[in-house]
Amino acid sequence: MSERVVITGAAGFIGSHLAEELLNRGYSVIGIDNLLTGDTANIAHLRNRDFEFIKHDVTNYIYIEGPVHYVLHWASPASPIDYLELPIPTLKVGALGTHKALGLAKAKNARFVIASTSEVYGDPLEHPQKETYWGNVNPIGPRGVYDEAKRFAEAITVAYHRFHGLDTKIVRIFNTYGPRMRIRDGRAVPAFISQALRNEKVTVFGDGRQTRSFCYITDLVDGIIRLMLSDTNDPVNIGNPAEMTIEEIARVIIEMTGSTSQIVYHPLPEDDPKVRRPDITRARTLLGWEPKVDLRAGLTSTIEYFRTKV
Ligand code: UDP
User: Fold this and answer.
1) Which residues have a catalytic role annotated?
2) What distances in angstroms separate CA 154 from CA 94, 149, 150, one per listed residue?
3) Which domains does the chain have, with CATH numbers?
4) Mind listing the pLDDT tens digit for each residue in 244-277?
5) How far, in Å, is the centroid of ligand 1 from the Cα of 206?
6) Which residue has the least CA distance to atom 6 on ligand 1?
7) Residue 187 Cα, ligand 1 centroid: separation in angstroms?
């Protein structure tokens, strides 16, 4: 019989790609989502596979019948605009939801993987960011609801590992893009692509000199599955170290879409990190992982997807 994987947040951008790739690799997948920011359209094509969908809010008790081998806790609003609008659900799913997902893993003696984030490093004072860096987070700033929920999620995950002996993994996910991001997601790549495709003004926040490092979704999913199957219990950064400014990526997107859009500059949101780039030495050495898809190849598929949506 196939090993069974429970994915919370399975109707989201990353959750749905993870579900699909695990099905391709022969796992049986149970997807849970309350559809707050997820969408069943992302998983509709999985209907006739070894996939079961449960609509449920994982801040409440999670009941699954039969064996479970892996629990992947992906549920959370994840775009800065979402967690500004949904501060309390964001805190609850990171705290209460992680507790419930850990409880399920413990009851089933399953491996547990938590989706953590580069946001645990806050507005980083160390660059690039290694897993040993503790971060520079404002707990009461607008991003604090997400950053602190994820920091709590890491803390409770490690506590279940140390105290209950649960086999736990922590993946710190850096900026990722690809098909199935929502047009109104608010994050830079989907915002710029949808604005460029409509020949509307492309909204760069601040002076556009802040940096990010963008990873294509298939590379991220490959890294997550390698971590899930690895022996390590330490946090691992997964992201593409190719760093660029936000203005640069806006210009690449305008050029690749053949758009007539102009850039407009809006005020920089509070606590917006000035730089971000993963140090991926740990992923390279422990997982043999390396991103393979370069920015232009990844953007080509992403733009193709957005053309069908705008
Ligand atoms: N950004 C921007 N215009 C937008 C959306 C985002 O200039 O329409 C900027 C944002 O201020 C940040 C960077 O792009 O500096 C990446 O933002 P995103 O929301 O994608 O995620 P973050 O990396 O901040 O979590």
Assistant:
1) 146
2) 9, 9, 6
3) 4-177+216-240+278-292 (3.40.50.720), 188-210+243-276+297-307 (3.90.25.10)
4) 999 999 999 999 999 999 999 999 999 999 999 9
5) 10
6) 188
7) 5
